Amino acid sequence: MYQVSVPRFANILRNLSAILDKAQAHAEARKIDPAVLTNFRLYPDMLPMKRQVQIACDSAKGAVARLAGVEPPKHDDVEENFAELKARIAKTLEFIQTFKPAQIDGSEEKDIHLKLGQREIAFKGMQYLLGHALPNFYFHVTTAYDILRHNGVELGKRDYLANP
Amino acid sequence: MYQVSVPRFANILRNLSAILDKAQAHAEARKIDPAVLTNFRLYPDMLPMKRQVQIACDSAKGAVARLAGVEPPKHDDVEENFAELKARIAKTLEFIQTFKPAQIDGSEEKDIHLKLGQREIAFKGMQYLLGHALPNFYFHVTTAYDILRHNGVELGKRDYLANP
């Protein structure tokens, strides 16, 4: 359970941070207001890029905390620019990397209760990690990537996968 | 290793098939040529929607086959419309669901060699599944979703995650 969670979240969060560096460099080179990219949406009722990053971070933080049975720290969604989004990723990385394998391993059958809007969903630990937390995490990281790619930032699959 | 692969790929592939149903209904209701959606790209040098589906299928098929140590069947990339893409998903599902847990479990340390373009990468089984196959699979499913969402198809996160 540890191997499937902490090192995987950490690797992709580091890659996402490097992707934001490329987006920032792209904006600077073309004199694009960074807020245009951080607030960009692929459709009017989709979430903007900055929210994709924030939710990816919370998905990783919440998953690791819930599996370990601790309360995750609350990170307010206040980031507007690339430096702030990178700092959000950095503090998420710092938090999840405090966990030791012994705190997460063995949580396959742990009861996890999740509030999603009005719905309350009951999961077992492994079902939660594999069926909710990981696909949700990858969804938001990929959507952040897709938004930046759609805006011309030069990214490739290797920026997303990097060195697993 | 089985739990982390086959049921996860299968669940999301079924969800992707249902997402394509919604896209087809959207196209029919608005008299949009389905080829506009299946060929849509978020950026000129990104792959079109149909290729996102094909690669997601191949990512699942290749991962399960490699972990089990069998040669994956070759599926040619000939699909153009929603019915054909759904059939591609259906034959991928049929293939991966032939595998029993005993064929996949215990492959954590198995040597996996992957050719990515010009590069040849050596993985161990778990590193390959967690660090390459799963994030790559989710990347292409999410990008297919993002392309359809960008084109106004009414989708939500529940269409992607469904019932894990």
Overview of the structural elements:
The structure is a homodimer of 164-residue chains. With 164 residues, the first copy, chain A, is mainly alpha-helical. The first copy, chain A, has seven helices and two strands, in the order H-H-H-H-H-E-E-H-H. The radius of gyration of chain A is 16 Å and the shape is globular. The mean pLDDT of chain A is 96.
Approximate strand percentage of chain A: 5-15%
Shape of chain A: globular
Look at the structure and give the mean pLDDT of chain A: 96
Please compute the radius of gyration of chain A using only Cα atoms: 16 Å
Topology overview:
Two copies of one chain form a homodimer.
Chain A: H1 2-29, H2 34-38, H3 49-68, H4 82-96, H5 101-104, E1 111-116, E2 119-124, H6 125-150, H7 157-161
Antiparallel strand pairs in A: 1-2
Helix pairs in contact in A: 1-3, 1-4, 1-6, 3-4, 3-6
Task: Supply database-style keywords.
two-stranded antiparallel ribbon, 164 residues, 7 helices, mainly alpha, globular, homodimer, 7% strand
Structure summarized in a few sentences:
The structure is a homodimer of 164-residue chains. In chain A, 63% of the residues lie in helices and 7% in strands.
